[in-house]
């Protein structure tokens, strides 16, 4: 499965979240491309099966300036049916925490994009361990939603990869899946 991860980050928290999501997607065998949103053409999202988009929130509820061009290009792109999961870091004590994510989500829905109903919002002061765990869980759930695969496959796969007794079997399965990808 081809996965795109696009993000903009000011303090580095959203970038850390993107890296954690990338690592989880690679761990389950996805082909992952990660880039900053200010360098991405919106039309390139069509090439991917699933996209993760991460934003920080500027001025408590505005879009970051790096994402403005991406936001404006959404109107011209034909992304009907594209599956996107949104994430971001911000101050969760604010009345509208991570408001930029809500703004982008609304626009994407109006443009025909299928937006994952669960949005990952992490407080900017969250410990690194909690952030990593939440990002991994979110990535697994979004992948399950995006690929329509059964959850038990991922549970078995994760157990096989983490158990030394089954690591060789997991490696052989991964090689077989690379030779004959599931579409």
From TrEMBL:
Residues 3-143 form the Flavodoxin-like domain. Its cofactor is FMN. Low-potential electron donor to a number of redox enzymes. Gene3D superfamilies: 3.40.50.360. One of its GO terms (molecular function) is FMN binding. This is Flavodoxin-like domain-containing protein. Keywords: Electron transport, Flavoprotein, FMN, Transport. Signal peptide: none annotated. InterPro entries: Flavodoxin (IPR050619), Flavodoxin/NO_synth (IPR008254), Flavoprotein-like_sf (IPR029039). Belongs to the flavodoxin family. It comes from Peribacillus muralis.
